[in-house]
Every structure is written in structure tokens, then in C-alpha cells.
Design goal:
The complex is a heterodimer of chains A (332) and B (206). With 332 residues, chain A is mainly alpha-helical. Chain A is 74% helix and 1% strand. Chain A has helices at residues 3-6, 29-52, 56-79, 88-118, 126-149, 157-180, 186-198, 203-223, 233-247, 256-293, 299-304, 307-328, and one strand at residues 84-85. Chain B starts with a strand and ends with a strand.
């Protein structure tokens, strides 16, 4: 099919123009769970940030650094999906889960775990046991909640990648803000913020994106009545946990270069997993596109089109799917 | 690329409903309950008890050179001290740490030295004069570096002492020394306790 033929847009039905709030789903129990967990956490987080703030300059420095990281993460988030953008309300829901409930709950649970593990003589391993268990599981639950809220639409692997990335990004941004606010000195705040920015950038987001990809794959198969392949969730949960545990593990040697090498290795493995998840997500998105529009071309032909044209085609496909959905709903 | 607010046909997607809700609540309950249960069941532990995989790092800075050494402290033992001691000059310990076993029957002191001629010379230098004729042997431990051992029992009725040393490959040597003092006669000379073997296996010096 030529690019000219691909740009032909389908007529949209009047219903197709209507935008529906996708987060507001009072009939869904997980919506209430999301609401009950994130709103109080957001309040507690604000109180915590105010309590930690020693000076306005320190808060400003920390905010600038976290803002810079947020900007880079936002660029990544924009670049990941090719065909359709996930609903804004669900993207915000994912970000808020990670940046409010997940971080606050993980912080409290890590503290309790740390005290308990100290009594078993596991002080040095405390971070590498607690953090993966609490943080990765809490983020995974957030991805599950958001994907269930997105379940009314066709789920692709890319949905899982993006929501996972957002849950992790929210978590990481707030974590970095809290770390940066730990010091009373602006210079020290900047130092901590820069170190957090440069060492292991976006690790939480990258790990969650991988978990999200696999979870979305299982849910999309269930959605299509193909069988969930739920066993895939074991590596999807364990792989980020093990990488996280290794990242937080005590030094393997008194030579700091050994630890640096380990960090580089772990970051490389994490990036590789993330790239695989994104590639898988793009393939899944493309399958959605071809099934929706009936287009028979190759993915690289589509990728060669200008960005604006790709967006227009994506919008057309979404409109087509929406029309098909509306047409299949029996009249009341 | 535009925002997707498309609904799937109602007949195609059955919403998961209460199952994910229950899974989330159950997981949250589990990760909250586990540390509480661990805390309740935790055994009493004396202050200063060495935990699992606690690495001790020692360093020495003399004559413009810098040496580092380390080992994994024996789990369950009690720390006597782990303060760094400033080096007073060549062959003086610049950093040390000491531990005693939970049963109070063995004492371990580790120290890092700079400028010794070699491991044997270090062992001889701070051992009693009576050990001068005793042989220094190789201990079957240490990864990549030879560990030398001097064992002696100079007083009747008490325990014996094992001293170990391992050094860097090139001069000026940085050496890590372990002195293991048996405080009773339960252990037999000629054998190395398993917990001390583990310490020796984890030792490193650079």
C-alpha cells in the first residue's frame, strides 16, 4: 500500500468524537482502590515534603533537579508509543500511583522491614531484600490497577510498557525529591540530586516498564480470549526484583571499581530488557493498527512516514476502532 | 498519534471486576503482615553482633601510598572494636578490627600493615620471640593470594594462637594480618576453624 493510500481517513461517527473519562469508572472496584490509596497518600506526601524542607532555596534546588529529570522522562514517554497515545487520565493515574501511594507505602514498609531484618542479622542485606519486595510489588500493583481501568479498550503490550514506565517515573521523581530534601545545605542538595539523576537514571521506570509489558501481554490475551499465559508473570516480577536486589546489594569487594562494574552491568541488562519491552510494544501496537485498519504493509513502511502523518493515521485507526465498537453495542 | 478513548464492544471484553481488586488487597495485606510477623518471631540479638555478609574495610595511608584490605566478618561474633588506628610509621597497624566469638572462646584481630618485607616477616615481627624457630606454612585459603600461617602455643593449659598474613604482589607491600587466639583448649592445633576459614577466603588486600 502506498503512503498516499494510507492517509485516506475514514469518516467518523458523531459518537466517535465524544471523549469519555477513562479514569472515572465508579463501577470498577479498582477505581475506588486507586482513589482511596492515592488521595490520602498525596496528602501525606505533601505534609512530608513540607516537613523535610529546611529552606526555600533547598526546595527550589531539589525541584529544579527533579524537574530536569521529569523533562527527560517526559521526552522518553512521548517517544515510546508510535501509534496511539494512552488516555491522559490513565497516564496521570499511573504517575500518581507511583508518585504517591507506592512511594509512601514502600517507605513505611521498608522501615518496618529494616527493623525486622536487623534482628535476624541481615542489616547489610536489608535494602536488597526490602526494596525489591516492597517497591517492585507496589509498582506492579499500580500497573495492574491502571491496566484494569484501561481494560475497556483493546490493550496492547505498549500500554503496559507506558503505564509501567509512568508508575516507575512517578516513584523515582518523588524518591529523588525526598532524597534531595534530606540535606539542609543547597550545595549538598544539588550534589545528592545530581548523583541520583546520573547514577542509575530511571531505573525504577525501566524495571516497571518491563513488568508492565508482560502483564499487558497476559491481559491482552485474556481480552481476546486466547488464554492468559500467566506463568510469564513470574519472570516479569522476578527479573526486576533480582536486578533491584543486585543494585542494592552490599559491595562485593573493598575496591569500589568492582561495584562500579556491577552497576554498569546491571544498568546494561536493565536497558536491554527495556528495549526488548519497547520493541515488543511497538510490534503489538502495529498488530493493533493492521487489525483495526486492515492495512497490509510492513512496519518499516509505516515508520518511514513523517511523524505528523503517522499521528493522523493513528487517529484514523482509533476512530475506526471506536466506530466499530459503537456499532457492535446493541441499541438500548 | 492521538489519545485513545475507544471502547471495546461490550460482548468482547469481560471486565475483570473484583479479582484484581482482591489480588491487590491481598498482596498489600501480605507485604504488610510479613515484616510484622518477622518482628514478632525475631530472636533476641546482642548489640554489636556481626550480621550476615558484613564486610570490614581497613585502610592504610603511609609514605604517600595507600592500601586497602577487607574481609567478611564472622557472622554471629561480637565486635570488640572496629575503629581505625592511625599509623605511627612503617609496619605499624594503621587500621584494625577485632571480634570475639559468641561463645567467647575465640578472639580474632585483623590489621592492615604497610611496608613489611613480606608476609613471613610480618608474622615474625610481632609474634613472641619463642616462635622464631617455628615453621611458617601456607594456609589453603585466599583467592589468588597466598596466605601464610604461623601457629604457636607457648603457655601450658591455655589455648593456642594462629596468625595469618597475606600481602600484595609487589613492593611496597600492603599486608593483611589476622591473629586468632583460642581462649580455651576446645580446638586442636593444626586445624583452622570453619568460621576463620570463611574469613580467610573472603580476605582481600590491594
Amino acid at each position: 500500500m502506498s503512503p498516499e493510500a494510507m492517509t485516506i481517513t475514514q469518516p467518523r461517527s458523531p459518537l466517535g468524537h465524544r471523549r469519555r473519562p477513562v479514569l472515572w469508572q465508579p463501577q470498577q472496584p479498582v477505581f475506588w482502590l486507586w482513589l482511596v490509596l492515592t488521595v490520602p497518600s498525596a496528602v501525606l506526601l505533601i505534609v512530608d515534603v513540607v516537613r523535610r524542607t529546611e529552606s526555600v532555596a533547598g526546595l527550589a534546588a531539589a525541584t529544579v533537579l527533579v524537574g530536569a529529570q521529569g523533562a527527560v522522562l517526559w521526552l522518553l514517554i512521548r517517544a515510546i508509543p508510535r501509534f496511539r497515545r494512552q488516555p491522559l487520565s490513565l497516564r496521570l493515574a499511573a504517575l500518581l500511583w507511583g508518585g504517591t501511594f507506592a512511594i509512601m507505602a514502600a517507605s513505611a514498609l521498608n522501615t518496618v522491614n529494616s527493623d525486622a531484618l536487623d534482628r535476624y542479622g541481615l542489616t547489610t542485606l536489608s535494602a536488597s531484600i526490602s526494596a525489591p519486595l516492597n517497591e517492585d510489588l507496589l509498582r506492579f500493583l499500580g500497573i495492574l490497577v491502571v491496566l484494569v481501568l484501561a481494560y475497556g479498550r483493546r490493550i496492547t503490550v505498549m500500554d503496559g510498557v507506558l503505564y509501567g514506565f509512568l508508575v516507575g517515573a512517578g516513584f523515582e521523581l518523588v524518591e529523588n525529591l525526598c532524597y534531595a530534601l534530606q540535606s539542609t545545605d543547597v550545595g549538598e542538595t544539588l550534589g545528592i540530586g545530581l548523583a541520583r539523576l546520573l547514577v542509575g537514571f530511571a531505573l525504577h521506570a525501566l524495571w516497571s516498564a518491563f513488568s508492565g509489558a508482560v502483564l499487558a501481554y497476559c491481559l491482552s490475551r485474556t481480552q481476546q480470549r486466547l488464554g492468559g499465559r500467566w506463568l510469564l508473570l513470574i519472570p516479569a516480577i522476578l527479573a526486576p526484583m533480582l536486578l533491584h536486589a543486585a543494585w542494592d546489594s552490599p559491595p562485593l569487594s573493598v575496591i569500589s571499581a568492582v561495584q562500579l562494574l556491577l552497576f554498569i552491568l546491571l544498568y546494561g541488562v536493565t536497558l536491554a530488557l527495556f528495549c526488548c519491552a519497547v520493541a515488543w510494544g511497538r510490534r503489538s501496537e502495529f498488530v493493533w493498527y493492521t487489525e483495526t485498519t486492515g492495512w497490509g504493509g510492513a512496519r518499516r513502511d509505516f515508520a518511514r512516514l513523517p511523524r505528523s502523518e503517522r499521528r493522523a493515521l493513528g487517529a484514523t485507526a482509533i476512530a475506526q476502532e471506536r466506530d466499530q465498537a459503537e456499532a457492535s453495542i446493541p441499541a438500548a | 498519534m492521538s489519545e485513545d478513548t475507544t471502547l471495546l464492544p461490550r460482548t468482547r471484553a469481560t471486565r475483570p471486576g473484583w479479582l484484581p481488586f482482591s489480588m491487590v488487597v491481598a498482596t498489600l495485606a501480605a507485604i504488610t503482615a510479613v515484616p510484622v510477623a518477622l518482628e514478632v518471631l525475631a530472636p533476641e540479638r546482642a548489640d554489636g553482633t556481626v550480621g550476615v555478609f558484613e564486610r570490614v574495610a581497613l585502610n592504610v595511608d603511609a609514605e604517600g601510598a595507600f592500601g586497602i584490605g577487607g574481609f567478611i566478618a564472622p557472622e554471629g561474633w561480637l565486635r570488640e572494636s572496629d575503629e581505625a588506628v592511625d599509623g605511627g610509621g612503617e609496619a605499624e597497624p594503621s587500621s584494625s578490627a577485632s571480634f570475639v566469638s559468641a561463645a567467647q572462646d575465640v578472639r580474632l584481630e585483623a590489621s592492615l600493615h604497610f611496608g613489611a618485607d613480606d608476609a613471613d616477616a610480618l608474622l615474625r615481627s610481632s609474634s613472641p620471640a619463642g616462635t622464631a624457630i617455628l615453621p611458617i606454612t601456607s594456609a589453603p585459603h585466599g583467592e589468588g593470594r597466598e596466605i601464610r600461617m604461623l601457629e604457636y602455643d607457648l603457655d601450658v593449659g591455655g589455648g593456642f594462637t594462629q596468625s595469618f598474613a597475606m600481602c600484595t604482589d609487589r613492593a611496597p607491600y600492603v599486608c593483611l594480618r589476622f591473629d586468632v587466639e583460642m581462649l580455651d583448649d576446645a580446638d586442636r592445633p593444626g586445624t583452622i576453624r570453619p568460621d576463620i576459614s570463611a574469613v580467610l577466603d573472603s580476605a582481600e588486600v590491594y
